[in-house]
Amino acid sequence: MNSTIYDLALSFDQSLTKIEKIFLFKQYGSSEKILKFPVQKIKNLVQRGWTGHRFQSRYFIDKAKEIYPYLTKAGIKTIRFDHPSFPAGLKEIPDPPFLLYYRGSLEFNYYQSAAIVGTRKPDMQGKQKCRQFSSYLTKEGFTIISGLALGIDGIAHEFCLRHNGQTIAVLGCGIDRIYPAANRELGRAILTNGGAIVSEYPPGIEPRRWYFPHRNRIIVGLSRSVLIIQSPEKSGSLISAQLAADYNRDLYVVDPGQKAVDAGNRNLIQNGATKVACPEEFIYHHIY
């Protein structure tokens, strides 16, 4: 049987963590072998209080056989964490996806890439700053990476595309859908313009609130630098900021105003993030 079938099957399992799947694969070199292990053996190997009641190998394999033709027809590709072409930045983080699903092209210059993220409800100043930074960095040859959410994410993708740039969108749901639906056309445009849509979640996985913080680690992992455009005090963007520190990424924060929607930016700057007032400053710090 095609080894990809077994990789797909292992990706369906949510009882093992990403780190555990990678650990087991490095030990045994095959998803097929892992899926054939009895539950007790896996429990001994991962060494934690793992019941294994959701580790349904036969079901996962049958499901993988079922969706494999669909992936090919839909132009959905997969790449495992140990593949030579697995994105360079994701190889550096401690918890990369075991298997990445994607449409489009994942070929881009990691050293000239930036994650642009921020609130889903920016004010007019935040929107303008996002347009300014995304447009300028695109013209300078940067690949823009974001989460395809409403607000800052969508603006960053859109204005990269307006300047014929390459942009990558990371989903917090299965690879077979664009979420939110309001950005469906934007998703199509990303693919048309040579970018990519990626997810660690297989087809059929609905968006869940807790998937989005996990999604942020892929956005940050893919990127050399992280730019926060605008964020309130409690924002998913702040998770990305913390991940930037954890993953040794350069973190930049747009010079904030005094509104509540800028409170997250102000806090980040007070805690040592690099403040940038304009795209030229970002470029300068990125190079030097």
Task: Describe the model.
- The protein has 288 residues and is of the alpha/beta class.
- 47% of the residues lie in helices and 14% in strands.
- It has helices at residues 3-12, 18-28, 31-36, 39-46, 57-74, 88-92, 124-139, 152-162, 184-192, 211-222, 236-246, 263-270, 279-287; strands spanning 77-80, 99-104, 113-117, 143-146, 167-170, 196-199, 225-228, 250-254, 274-276.
- A nine-stranded mixed β-sheet has the order 1-2-6-5-4-3-7-8-9, sandwiched between helices.
- Helix 7 (124-139) links the parallel strand 3 (113-117) and strand 4.
- The longest helix is centred in the N-terminal third of the chain and has 18 residues, at 57-74.
- 44% of the residues are buried.
- The mean pLDDT is 94.
What topology does this entry show?
Layout: H1 3-12, H2 18-28, H3 31-36, H4 39-46, H5 57-74, E1 77-80, H6 88-92, E2 99-104, E3 113-117, H7 124-139, E4 143-146, H8 152-162, E5 167-170, H9 184-192, E6 196-199, H10 211-222, E7 225-228, H11 236-246, E8 250-254, H12 263-270, E9 274-276, H13 279-287
Keywords:
Rossmann fold; 288 residues; nine-stranded mixed beta sheet; globular; 9 strands; 2 domains; alpha/beta
> Low-confidence spans: pLDDT under 50, at least 5 residues?
none
Class based on secondary structure composition and strand pairing: alpha/beta
Major β-sheet profile: 9 strands, mixed
User: Numbering strands along the chain, what is their spatial order in the largest sheet?
Assistant: 1-2-6-5-4-3-7-8-9
CATH class of the largest domain: Alpha Beta
| Total DSSP E strands | 9
Q: Give the averaged pLDDT, no decimals.
A: 94
What is the CATH architecture descriptor of the largest domain?
3-Layer(aba) Sandwich
Q: How many helix segments?
A: 13
If you compute it from the alpha carbons, what radius of gyration comes out, rounded to the nearest whole angstrom? 19 Å
**Strand residue content:** 5-15%
* Helix share, percent: 40-55%
The coarse silhouette is globular
CATH fold assignment of the largest domain: Rossmann fold
